[in-house]
Amino acid sequence: MKEQKSAGRTAQENAAAQEKAGAADFINEPTLLREVLPISRRTAKNWRDSGVLPYCKTGSRVLYHLPSVRAAMLRQQHNSPNNGNRVQLAGAA
Predict the structure, then answer these.
(1) What CATH number corresponds to the domain at position 60?
(2) Burial environment of residue 93 by CB neighbours within 10 A (0 to 12, 13 to 18, 19 or more)
């Protein structure tokens, strides 16, 4: 049986590339705090505990799915006339 090719890659190669790209969407806590959200570790834990910040825990490692974190922060955004204290997410338009 002939394998389908997409952009010069086989279906298996495409599946592996998609899986690898999906894994890249997860970041660890130090990266989140350093590059995405300018908050303390304690604030991140409080937000996790209260359900504001979505996360996955693998053993003792806490991982964050970056698109889910961005969506959660947008849901928490308040539109006030004087919103000068708004947190700007890195990479967000």
Answers:
(1) 1.10.10
(2) exposed
